[in-house]
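We modelled the chain as a single entity of 544 amino acids. Its sequence is:
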Amino acid sequence: MKHKSKISKRIAAIAAAGTLLLTVPMSGCDFMGKENENSKADTSSQKNDGNGTDSNLGNDVAVKSEHYSLSFDEFQYFYNYNYTSFIGTYGSAIIDSSKDLSEQYYNEEEKTTWKDYFITSTKEYFTQIMVFAEAAQQAGLKLTEEDTKTLDDSFEQIKSMAEDEGKTVDEYFKQLYGDGITQKDVRAMQEMSTLGLKYRNQLYESYKNTEEEYEKEFNDNKTSYQVADYYLYTFAFASSESSESSETSTAVDEKTKNELKEYANALSNSKDEKEFKDYLTKYLKDNPELVHVETSGEESLTEDKLNSSINDTVEACAHLKSSYDDSTDTNKWIFDASRKAGDTKVNETEKGFEVVLVTKPIYRDESLTRSVRHILIDSSSVVSAGLAEDKSSVTDNQVKDYATKVYNEWTEKDTTEAKFAELANKYSTDPGSNTNGGLYTNVVEGQMVPTFNDWLFDKNRKQGDSGIVKTDYGYHIMYYVGTGLKSWQIRMESKLKEQKLTEDYDALKAKVKIDFNDEVINKVQITQTEESGSESSAANLANQ
């Protein structure tokens, strides 16, 4: 399983390779390529792994396959990227950046150093890119005009950045990556990784899991795919910060704890959902200070608003669903095989007394997921349309009117799903779906924000239904696509596909001859110094 996880993570990294090639800070440059003052020192005094680099190495072949070849400089670039990414994630907690990597053990028992680790991970990275890229060549897969345009656009962005600094693109690449990396190198690596990722994605999307495969995975790992429904409310301990003395504070806390425990025990006497909600509603009405009520300006708190907030609080504690998690005693208790509907339990935690009511013990969720397309219209949409100068001046009515305008553009001309998808790519501001026609597939009930979820899972919803709903994000133009997998199946969908991808990758890898020139590769070094800010730059990159 560790091997498969590593494969997945490394392959996923290919998706960002095109962008990373243009943004990873190298050769003493910060995130946007501006030279750091401390990076101008003679490189002979820099902290590195101790081997030094022969200036004639740059164009030596470090790795090659049938159709692709990468130079020492290109390999060293990714070696540095792996290092800066690691430091960006973990800082210096694991690696002492003041010491040579070749003098620090990654695994002392096996006598492997951190330099060995980063060389190996870089080899694995290139192996996976090249395996899929070679497979794409074998299958006759080519980059499309759209793929090429995407790469061209990335270079146009770099050209613009270079011009802003009064440099040519080649001078800018030299500043970013050092003497060894040219515009031609970057483009070649981008094309190779884009083609490899394209093949990988097509392969992944081609997998169709069978009912037999779902059932086998379920039977092999039932705990992972079962759920349970419950209600939960916590009688929180009051803060003692305002108490005058620790002695008084202790007394007040004990009194408060005893009162809360009584309330918790009383709630735990509930034998069904109605009794639980009725008791909790009464408790909150008797203690309205525990209820958060949103009011604006001078708006007064009315009884209706309070009751509405109490109802929202109670509902937030109800109809909860959980999968097994052995990190909490509550969850372990809920998933005990002897559990039955109506069972209750009181747990004392650091926050207070937690009361749990099981409403549906362990089961396999057979409910169908649903798929939907949507177009998110928000204040930025109004600004982009030239209807307002900035987002702060946009009113809710303006956003609603613009959403209606876009909706009418669809309903008045072409009400097909394809046209809706086209408009989603054109208008939607949702970064999670505005490049795939606004599509979300296999959505589990409760996964989306309330009003979105309520529209999607309306029991009367029919394929092709459309409408507009409002959420905190803006106005969503909705198009109902239909039902998908069962909820229990979606929990294993990607796992089964990843297993197939790993199997196919191993088969492809066995057919591809990739040669690493270790004599050349072992001379790689870290080209940034601690003083030049590599850690902070890497941290910025890791958060992109």
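As a brief sanity check on the tokenised model: Residues 1-53, 240-252, 529-544 have pLDDT under 50 and may be disordered. The chain has three domains: 2-144+175-209+505-536, 227-293+302-363, 368-489.
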